[in-house]
Amino acid sequence: MKPHIIGRTLGIGLRVAGRVVGQRVVVGAQVQSKAPPAGVPAAGRAIAADAVAKGRAAGEAAVRTAGGVGRGVAGFLRPFRRVGGILWLEVSGVFFLLFVVAFAPTLWRARHSYAHGPDHRTFWAAAAIMAVFLYLGVTSFWKARKK
C-alpha cells in the first residue's frame, strides 16, 4: 500500500472515531441532564429544567460571541500576516546569502586548482555549497517579491 493511502485511511478513521466518541459524550450528557434527581418534587424539577435551559442559552451566546471575536481578530491580523510572510522570506534570503559570502573567499583561494591540483576538492565543494545557498537566497527574495 502506498504511504499517502495509508495516511489518508488513518486520518479518515480517526475523524470518524472522533465523531462517534463526541456523539456518545453528548448523548450521555443529555441523558444525565434529563434524568430527574431522586426525591426532588415536581416544582424543583421545573426550576432545575429552567436553570438548565438558561445555562444552555448562555453557553450558545458565549459561543457566538467567541466566534465573532475570533473572526474580528483574524480580520485585524490579516495584513500583518502578509507582511510577516514577506519579512520572513527576506530575512531567510539574507541568511542564505550570508553563506554565499562566507564561502566566497574559499572559492577564490582555490580557483587555480579547479581542474586538478591540491585544492581541487575544496574548490568544487565550495562551489557546490555556494550554488545551493545562492539558489535558496535568490528564490527566497523572488517569492517575497511575488507576494
Brief characterization of the structure:
With 147 residues, the protein is mainly α. Helices cover 86% and strands 0% of the residues.
SSE layout and pairings?
Blueprint: H1 3-34, H2 42-109, H3 120-146
Helix pairs in contact: 2-3
Determine the N-to-C terminus distance: 38 Å
Low-pLDDT residue spans: none
Tell me, briefly, the overall form. Answer: elongated
Rg value: 32 Å
Protein structure class: mainly alpha
Question: Averaged pLDDT, please?
Answer: 81
Largest sheet report = none
- SSE string: HHH
**Count of alpha/pi helices:** 3
Count the domains: 2
Task: Provide keyphrases for this structure.
single chain, 147 residues, mainly alpha, 0% strand, elongated
What does this protein structure show overall?
With 147 residues, this protein is an all-alpha fold. The protein contains 3 helices and no strands. Helix 2 crosses helix 3. 3% of the residues are buried. The model has no long low-confidence stretch (mean pLDDT 81).
